[in-house]
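We were asked to recover a plausible sequence for a given structure. The inputs and outputs are reproduced exactly as logged, with field labels preserved.

PROBLEM: sequence recovery
POSITIONS: 270
GIVEN STRUCTURE:
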């Protein structure tokens, strides 16, 4: 909700939709307060509490800008590189300490997905689960992570990026954040309901995807493929929630293409 203070200053109030969601919205506010980055900002959290209906709310600075999902539709192609560079260089955290603990979290997640999806009898899902199962997730170190870094949750104002709508996720890693952007620019997930994506938007999304991944490759070459594995896991996690045929088919096609990309990268690497 866009609200106004007595001094006419605007602020945004986010209220939990029901009391069961209070805990998650509280985590969201906490993540936003604690987020620290030298070049990427978050709206300042001004106040929080429980309202008269027992719902958690928090107030934050109103950023009068434009979401990246809107901005990308008309962005000058020349500006894409600096935005991608800004995002990647500021969220990538290179840490060579590979951990076994991480491996375990991912293996358990994949195991439970396999159980949930067995009844679908879908060879694409089976192949994806097979790939995810034999992948080593050791490079996924715990780092600061937004949790739902879609283009809608990035606001740009005067060339400054702001992140909103943080989310708790099963695992916090910058690789997961980049893969969420990829879900928008590679699979064009947010545009799945549109009959035809405007050709200019499509072109810009593809340029964004290529430059984003080129930047990942130049900053941390070993993590290039990891982003695609994270994306594959992300897509597979949506399957249990799909209710209509159209979304299922869309997801299936996109999953297939990510599997092909992973195979291609692996062939090139060996
Ligand atoms: N602090 C803010 N300043 C300016 N605009 C904002 C701000 N917070 C949210 N918005 C606008 O409102 C939209 C929805 O906000 P937000 O992403 O937090 O909620 P949501 O996507 O509905 O939440 P959820 O995914 O948690 O249900 C944003 O895409 C953005 O356009
Ligand atoms: Mg949002």
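RECOVERED SEQUENCE:
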């Amino acid at each position: 909700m866009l609200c106004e203070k007595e001094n006419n200053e605007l602020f945004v109030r986010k209220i939990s939709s029901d009391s069961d969601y209070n805990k998650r919205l509280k985590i969201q506010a906490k993540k936003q307060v604690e987020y620290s980055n030298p070049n990427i900002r978050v709206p300042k959290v001004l106040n929080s509490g429980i309202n008269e209906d027992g719902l958690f709310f928090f107030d934050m600075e109103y950023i009068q800008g434009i979401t990246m999902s809107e901005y990308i539709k008309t962005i000058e192609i020349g500006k894409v590189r600096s935005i991608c560079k800004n995002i990647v260089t500021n969220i990538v955290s290179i840490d060579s300490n590979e951990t076994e603990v991480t491996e375990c979290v991912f293996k358990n997640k994949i195991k439970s997905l396999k159980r949930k999806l067995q009844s679908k009898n879908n060879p694409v899902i089976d192949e994806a689960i097979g790939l995810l199962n034999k992948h080593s997730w050791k490079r996924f170190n715990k780092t600061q992570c937004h949790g739902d870094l879609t283009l809608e949750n990035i606001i740009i104002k005067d060339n400054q990026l702001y992140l909103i709508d943080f989310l708790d996720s099963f695992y916090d890693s910058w690789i997961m954040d980049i893969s969420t952007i990829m879900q928008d620019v590679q699979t064009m997930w947010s545009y799945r309901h549109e009959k035809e994506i405007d050709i200019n938007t499509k072109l810009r999304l593809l340029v964004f995807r290529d430059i984003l991944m080129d930047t990942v490759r130049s900053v941390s070459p070993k993590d290039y493929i990891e982003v695609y594995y994270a994306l594959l896991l992300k897509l597979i996690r949506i399957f249990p929630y799909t209710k209509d045929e159209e979304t299922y088919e869309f997801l299936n096609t996109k999953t297939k293409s990510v599997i092909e990309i992973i195979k291609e990268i692996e062939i090139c690497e060996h």
